[in-house]
Design a protein that fits this description.
It holds the Pfam family HTH_1. Belongs to the LysR transcriptional regulatory family. Keywords: DNA-binding, Transcription, Transcription regulation. This protein is α/β, with parallel strands linked by helices and 301 residues long. The protein is built from twelve helices and eleven strands. The strands form two sheets. Strands 3, 4, 5, 6, 7, 8, 9, 10 and 11 form a nine-stranded mixed β-sheet that branches.
């Protein structure tokens, strides 16, 4: 290779601080050595990686493209180095807030995988709706959040983990269960039980119906999905819930996914963290393993 890990380390440190001198201090280099390493990298790649903005340096388009790839190479190199010395690369505790769908269906497998790879990593998980998770991340109660839907808060960074979709479901005994197609008018006439306001599921559902259906007959709103599933199974209600939360009930024949062609609801499950948070290798490991897990999962999302 024509570039070195040292050059990539200088590039990443400058990207973090916006300053060659601060990057040099972080890496225990002289400023001239850091400047030379960065200059050599840009010359080798044939592209400018930074541009000056005021007193600081900001990434160019090429710099933004390179940074995640450089971070991955540096991480892998460190893992190899410490692995040969039988040291644990990742240890310590991290606090995670997770919304219900991710916490119930994805997080347990994620923790199991991480336990095998990083036995000294401790993940403390609390389960809340998306609004409370994002609030907890902002207020420093969680280092990392797992939420449903979009996050438009500029104080938080968002990285999509995977995609899920919502389905409108009814009991097999519900009159609509026999219909090949359910109309919007029939949805307006139905009795609904839904997640509470503030949940990611409810926010996405409301957004999908905005301008499509003016008025729903919402009888009950609950935070816990098992309560909603019981109401659907034992009463004359319909609901809109994440596919992962109802797939077993649909496959068993207890629930029916209603066919409403006008309403198709997809949503991302994402990681969020504070924009100004310091780099956290525990967070990076969790996100990397989570994406690897989904890539090799047999779950149809």
């Amino acid at each position: 290779m024509r570039y070195s890990l040292k050059q990539l380390a200088v590039f990443d440190a400058v990207a973090s601080s916006g300053s060659v001198s601060q990057a040099a201090d972080k890496l225990a280099l002289t400023q001239s050595a850091a400047s030379m390493a960065l200059s050599q990298l840009e010359k080798t790649l044939g592209r400018p990686l930074f541009e000056r903005q005021g007193r600081g340096l900001v990434l160019t388009h090429w710099g933004h493209w390179l940074r995640p790839r450089a971070k991955q190479l540096l991480f892998d190199a460190k893992e190899i180095e410490l692995g040969f010395y039988d040291q644990h690369l990742i240890s310590g505790e991290i606090s995670v807030g997770a919304s219900q769908t991710g916490a119930e269906h994805l997080v347990p497998d994620l923790i199991s995988n991480l336990d095998r790879e990083f036995p000294e990593l401790r993940i403390n998980v609390e389960v809340h709706n998306t609004e409370k998770v994002t609030q907890g991340v902002r207020e420093f109660r969680y280092d990392l959040g797992i939420i449903e839907g979009r996050c438009d808060d500029s104080r938080l960074q968002q990285d999509i983990w995977c995609h899920d979709h919502l389905v409108i479901v009814a009991s097999k005994h519900h009159p609509y269960a026999a219909y090949e197609r359910v109309s919007l008018t029939q949805l307006e006439q139905a009795k609904w039980v839904l997640r509470e306001p503030g949940s990611g599921t409810r926010a996405i559902f409301d957004a999908a119906l905005f301008g499509v259906i003016d008025d729903l007959d919402v009888w009950r709103e609950y935070e816990h999905v098992p309560v909603l599933r019981s109401l659907i199974a034992n009463g004359p209600y319909i609901s809109c819930l994440p596919y992962l939360d109802v797939i077993k009930f649909i496959e068993s024949g207890e629930f029916v996914a209603l066919n409403v062609p006008e309403i198709q609801i997809e949503r991302p499950l994402s990681f969020v963290w504070r924009t100004n948070a310091e780099e956290n290798p525990l967070k990076e490991v969790i996100i990397r393993e989570a994406k690897r897990m989904i890539k090799h999962s047999r779950i149809k999302m």
